[in-house]
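Handout, section B. The chain below has 70 residues.
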Amino acid sequence: MIESILIKTLLLSVGLLFCGYLLGRDAGRRQGSGATIDLLCQRGYVNFRRTGKDLGEIQLVKLNGETEEM
C-alpha cells in the first residue's frame, strides 16, 4: 500500500518536473538573448537606431551603416 503511493507520487513529481522544463526552457532563452542584446547596445558594441512612431522601435545597424530588414 505505502509502496504504491510512493511510486505514484514519484512518477507524478517527475512528470510535473519534465512539463515545467518543457514550458520554461524557451522563455529563459528569449529573456537571456534579449538581455544580452540590451547589454551589448548599452556598452557600445552594437549600433542601434530608434525608429517608428514615438521612437519606440529599435533597429540594429550593421557596422557599415546598413540596416537589415526583417
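Note. The helical segments are 2-43. Compare this with the example in section A.
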